[in-house]
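Same chain as my last thread, 281 residues:
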Amino acid sequence: MPQRERITITIREDLLHSLDRTIDHQRIRNRSHALEVVLARALHNDTHQAVILASGQGVKMRPFTYEIPKPLIPVNGKPLLEYGIVLLRNHGIKNILITVSHLAHKIEQHFGDGSNLGVNITYVKERKPTGTGGALLAAHPHLEPSPFLLLYSDVLLNLDLTEFLQFHLANKAAVGTLALTSVVDPSAFGAVKLRGSRIVEFSEKPVIANDTSRLVFSGCAAFDYSVFNFIKKQTRPLSLEKDIFPELTQSGRLFGYPFEDQWFDVSTPEVYDQVIKQWRT
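reply #2:
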């Protein structure tokens, strides 16, 4: 982690009051931390590219997804995918690759080049879905050789992406950092066990016990470009969760970033019903 140096500064009283209002004693611990976060956001956000995975067929959301791709399902009057695009844009990430396959033309027609939302969208077309790992591999040739964010198109989350990226970039050992959220029952997602901030175990179908981790992957991750050294082309669909993350975990290069704000995996009609009632921006 970076070395820190003690300094003394004089600051306007009104700015100090504004700084104090950011302190929540969780993510922002104190005045020093608040000032550090503000300066880092202003000076060191060098990540401006992201990949959104939107190639899936949305099988669990049928019959809706026979006619409309899941990323276009409306939530409070906006397509599900728009929330992810706007979240990225609001944190300065405007070069966005979107992998598409099922009903791809409808996604492309709706969002176009992204200029209406203030971003630049490039579409990566898959003839058929190749899994989350395969989709990321398809995006590889279109990425600059620098860190990037990954976002699943069917998740809704309130996450400070700037702070998340700073956490990832400050950790030189990290090839990948996963944003983690807590759930009551992780059996549908797979449990993630941490030692400090390092991920030491993935349990795809954990047996629920008192010591079972309730942390799960939220569908948002930060990666160094070197992650592609861990992704090998396969003839079968390739899964990040089943194939790539375990290898990164074994090598000690995968880390976790727990957060506690809103999160939904819009995977079933039942969850969609909850989202319509509970999602707030």
